[in-house]
């Protein structure tokens, strides 16, 4: 009985691992179909030019669990964040701009939110430029359709971060442990 369960779990794990193929021909960089962006996403990794904003108690350290493209063209992000040790839930609506895949929102300052690339199926990469007290902060975020993405997606994210001047020390991994989101700095 226990063996059967183990085999079942192993099979499931293998299936998830092998199913996660990064097909670069399926990656979209512009002209996004926002209906396909909608749905469940998990925060996988984040990078920032100011680490205290995505570190413990950082105001931009958020754990996304859903993105919804609204009828009026706005984009709604639902996420969890930690506030004084408690897990809080929040949804914010980003307003569309004249450009496809680009949004703005007032949240801890003024923000421009851009999709950098996605394959809709496994991953999406966002770029956020935050302006607060005349200080600019760059943030990049990698979200996955499942709580864990294979290293190939993380490597790709690392390379994108590099283009924005963010090295390995600017990147954190947000991992999914026992049904709760936790982060390793
Ligand atoms: C980084 O963020 C922290 C926390 O919001 C802030 O106090 C600090 O001034 C920021 N540093 C820079 C260089 O922007
Ligand atoms: C679009 O709809 C959402 C949800 O009803 C609302 O919060 C947002 O302000 C709307 N945006 C515009 C530009 O009307």
Automatic annotation (TrEMBL):
Q: Name one Pfam family in it.
A: Lipocalin
Check the record and name the SUPFAM superfamilies matching this protein.
Lipocalins (SSF50814)
What Gene3D superfamilies does the entry give? 2.40.128.20
Q: Where is the Lipocalin/cytosolic fatty-acid binding domain?
A: 38-175
Give the InterPro entries listed for this entry.
Calycin, Lipocalin, Lipocalin_CS, Lipocln_cytosolic_FA-bd_dom, Maj_urinary
Signal peptide residue numbers: 1-19
Subcellular location(s) per record = Secreted
Cite the GO molecular-function annotations of the record.
small molecule binding
Extract one GO cellular component term from the record: extracellular space
Q: Which UniProt keywords apply?
A: Disulfide bond, Secreted, Signal
Q: Which PANTHER family match?
A: EPIDIDYMAL-SPECIFIC LIPOCALIN-9, LIPOCALIN
Q: Which family does it belong to?
A: Belongs to the calycin superfamily. Lipocalin family.
User: How is this protein named in the record?
Assistant: Lipocalin 9
- Provide the species name: Loxodonta africana
Organism ancestry? Eukaryota, Metazoa, Chordata, Craniata, Vertebrata
């Amino acid at each position: 009985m226990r063996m059967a369960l183990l085999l079942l779990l192993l099979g499931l794990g293998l299936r998830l691992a092998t199913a996660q193929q990064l097909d670069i021909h399926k990656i979209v960089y512009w002209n996004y179909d926002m209906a396909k962006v909608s749905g469940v996403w998990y925060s996988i990794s984040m990078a920032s030019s100011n680490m205290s904003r995505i570190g413990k108690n950082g105001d931009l350290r958020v754990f996304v669990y859903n993105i919804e493209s609204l009828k009026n063209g706005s984009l709604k992000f639902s996420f969890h964040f930690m506030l004084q040790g408690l897990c809080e839930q929040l949804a914010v609506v980003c307003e569309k701009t004249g450009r496809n895949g680009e949004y703005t929102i007032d949240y801890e300052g003024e923000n421009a939110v851009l999709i950098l690339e996605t394959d809709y199926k496994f991953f999406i990469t966002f770029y956020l430029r935050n302006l607060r007290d005349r200080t600019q902060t760059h943030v990049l975020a990698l979200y996955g359709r499942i709580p864990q993405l294979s290293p190939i997606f993380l490597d790709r994210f690392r390379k994108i971060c590099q283009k924005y001047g963010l090295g390995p020390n600017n990147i954190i991994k947000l991992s999914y442990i026992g049904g709760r989101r936790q982060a390793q700095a």
